[in-house]
Design goal:
It is built from 15 helices and 15 strands. With 523 residues, the protein is α/β, with parallel strands linked by helices. The protein is globular. The two termini are 21 Å apart.
């Protein structure tokens, strides 16, 4: 047999890898060893994967190759290397969520989403790093330290799916499972130059996801406290890869009662999903709504430049792009409702003293500046919200969902920036310490505008966590050495349509570009 020609893992997509495996260009063992070689060369400097599945991955790849050699179908992901955010339970690797009390915790079974990908033939390479309990948009873990951005290693990859985005950008794996309660899939994707899908809230089961905290050592967990805002999703190198990973995840699992029934769309690819080729869309120009002014938040020069270039390319291709002025809905109302729900529900998992302290910070003299930090202030008020305030927030959420759904009924998608700023210098951020203010970088280096941390990072993502809409992030260019992404928001429960649109737009957006810090590691 001729020697296998291994793929270039700097550029390889999941879809291309699966086609290569089906055609016998190389084996699953070849592909897994290639990813492992890149992990061995690069992971020590990036700290993306914090638990490796070396022997398990080799054994799983051998099983896939044996099934394929015997003429059996190894599954729609047969032989594909994946990684999993360390919030998802894995039966053969520790699951810590970067929470020190869970150091060394070993679940007895896989989370539902992990089991579904493994049953489809995926090969688990390892678990990816994140901030504690997926609770922040940065990449610092109290258990494992900082994850570094592969574009510039002194900068953060974002969070909370920080190691996940770095693993995909660096070729450690080709699909990754992540989660998002306020931007945790979208910010790292934009900061690392890859793609992500945040599915509609409750579309995908969260069974086996932390938080909530699991029972252990004879003690029961705290139970589920977060009933809104949280969505599961996928990180990958292309929109077609997002569709490939997503279509295996939705639907009830018999445990998460919030997940509705789901029947995969049928198309050229058969019962597993539609054909995600651009030809499935109407040839008519797309109608795209553009929203880039969130309460006057400034944009860094990289984001502004990439947005201008994208809008020109879209209009040059004949698509209709209309800037929404004023905003689609009251963004201040969205921030307030999100903060109330997030503070109330996440806060239930905190010790009572910590909830009381954090909930009253804005009343303390030294922190009076929180009056100019609407997102942080809303969350703190949520920590002390009563049932009346909680119910008012739920009603505000419903009104905002109705407003956004109405606008998306008239347009094919809504396009928004991911964050006011790009990847910022990394630093240790232990829980309980004040977040820093972040500089909005100007092209001439003279800009000294600084934003409060949450406004600079999650202010443009949390409105769509509040409404639960599906969102795809695509890379739209590299400006002054760092990538920029765009949010593409679709109607609730319409992931298939949104993913088709993302595949159609991807060539105009630019697609995946390998980070320079990973280029020398091609085996």
């Amino acid at each position: 047999m001729a020697q296998a020609i291994l793929p270039d893992l700097r550029y390889l997509t999941a879809s291309a890898a699966l086609e290569d495996l089906r055609q016998g260009r190389y084996t699953a063992q070849n592909l897994v060893e290639g990813c492992q070689t890149r992990i061995d060369r690069l992971n020590a400097g990036l700290n993306a994967l914090v638990a490796l599945n070396r022997e398990g991955a080799r054994a799983a790849a051998c099983q896939v190759d044996a099934r394929r050699a015997a003429g059996d179908d190894p599954g729609p992901l047969g032989g594909l290397p994946i990684s999993v955010k360390d919030t998802f339970a894995t039966r053969d690797l520790p699951t810590t969520a970067s929470h020190p009390p869970l150091a060394g915790y070993q679940p007895g079974r896989d989370a539902t989403v992990v089991a579904r990908w493994r049953q489809a033939g995926a090969v688990l390479m390892g678990k990816s790093n994140l901030p504690e309990l997926a609770g922040a948009p940065h990449g610092w873990s109290p258990l494992f330290g900082a994850t570094h951005n592969p574009w510039q290693r002194h900068r953060t990859p974002g969070g909370s799916s920080s190691g996940a985005a770095v693993a995909i950008a660096s070729g450690f794996s080709l699909l990754e499972l992540g989660s998002d309660i306020g931007g945790s899939l979208r910010i790292p994707a934009a900061y690392c130059g890859i793609s992500s899908l945040k599915a509609t809230e409750n579309r995908i089961p969260r069974t086996g996801h932390i938080p909530h905290l699991p029972p252990r050592d004879g003690r029961s967990g705290v139970g589920r406290t977060v009933w809104h805002l949280l969505s599961m999703g996928v990180l990958a190198r292309s929109a077609a890869d997002l569709a490939l990973g997503y279509r295996l995840l939705p639907g009830p699992d018999g445990e998460d009662s919030t997940v509705p029934p789901w029947a995969p769309a049928t198309g050229a690819s058969g019962a597993l999903g539609v054909s995600y080729a651009p030809k499935t869309l109407s040839p008519a120009p797309l109608r795209l709504l553009w929203w880039d002014d969130f309460e006057g938040l400034p944009l860094c020069f990289r984001t502004r430049a990439a947005l201008v270039q994208l809008k020109q390319r879209l209009e040059g291709a004949g698509h209709r792009v209309e800037r929404q002025e004023p905003g689609i809905f009251d963004i201040g109302r969205a921030w307030a409702a999100y903060g109330t729900l997030a503070g109330a529900e996440i806060g239930l998992g905190l010790p009572p003293w910590q909830r009381l302290l954090l909930g009253n910070l804005e009343r303390l003299g030294p922190l009076a500046g929180l009056q100019r930090q609407p997102v942080a202030r809303a969350f703190m008020r949520g920590l002390r919200a009563d049932l009346k305030a909680y119910n008012q927030a739920l009603n505000a959420r419903e009104a905002l969902i109705e407003t956004l759904e109405g606008r998306l009924g008239e347009w094919d998608a809504l396009l928004c920036p991911v964050a006011p700023i790009g990847p910022y210098p990394a630093r240790a951020m232990p829980a309980g310490r004040p977040f820093p203010r972040l500089r909005v970088e100007e092209a001439d280096g003279q800009g000294e505008t600084r934003l409060p941390y949450l406004e600079a990072t999650v202010a443009m993502t949390i409105p769509f966590s509040l409404t639960g809409h599906p969102v795809v992030v695509l890379p739209i260019g590299v400006v002054a050495g760092l990538p920029v992404g765009i949010q593409i928001i679709g109607r609730r429960w319409q992931e298939d349509t949104l993913l088709q649109l993302a595949v159609h737009l991807e060539p105009l957006c630019g697609g995946f570009t390998p980070p320079p810090d990973t280029m020398e590691a091609q085996p």
